[in-house]
Amino acid sequence: MRKVKPFSEYQKGIYGEILGEFFNPIFSTKPYQIILIRLFLCIMFPTDNEYLTLYVFYAIAFLALLAGICFTSSRKLYIINLIIYFCYTFYSIWIFSDPENFKYGGSLGVLFYTWAFLIIHIFLFVLIKVVFMFYLYLKNLKR
After folding, report:
1. Is the domain of 66 the same as that of 32?
2. In this predicted model, what pLDDT tens digit does every residue of 41-57 receive, in sequence order?
3. Who contacts 121 (Cβ-Cβ below 8 Å, separation ≥6)?
4. pTM of the model
5. Same domain, 54 and 112
6. Cα–Cα distance measured from residue 3 to residue 118, given in angstroms and rounded to the nearest whole number
């Protein structure tokens, strides 16, 4: 018989309401269900309004980078930015995976750092695009 780590009251509420019986470890015996259960148990995704806004902005940034790769001629720039995006996204997931980061008001620090990565990346990307466009404008003026 498979041993299952007991849920905390928080996990029982969150996973019971959101995920339903498909992800319930008592009823799940298929390998893909066990992998999904472990994934959901090791990463804590807060669902407050601030965090939901953060998730939406991460999704918008991801879709914008994908659109840049698909629909522009400067694909290399967007691929490099997508790699940078994945680096700090995985770092943010690593921060989310440790429940100690959310204790004693630490959730504000987690929220700050995940927002900071995204905002700095967007700011630098826009700054590079503006400087490059200004450079092209000056280059065309000299002709």
Report:
1. no
2. 666 667 677 888 888 89
3. 61, 81, 84, 85, 88
4. 0.64
5. yes
6. 40
Domain membership flag for residue 59: yes
Question: For 80-120, how does the pLDDT look when each residue is reduced to its tens digit (9 = 90+)?
Answer: 999 999 999 888 888 887 778 777 878 888 888 889 999 99
Q: Is residue 64 part of a domain?
A: yes
For residue 139, report the phi and psi dihedrals to the nearest 5 degrees. Answer: -65, -40
Q: Residue 77 to residues 74, 81, 84: CA-CA distances in angstroms? A: 6, 6, 11
Q: How many domains does the chain have?
A: 2
Same domain, 73 and 88: yes
- Does residue 75 lie within any of the structural domains? yes
Please state, in angstroms and rounded to a whole number, the distance separating the CA atoms of residues 99 and 11.
12
Give the whole-angstrom CA distance, residue 24 versus residue 56: 27
Helix and strand totals (H; E) in the chain = 5, 0
* Packing angle, helices 49-71 and 106-142, rounded to 10: 30
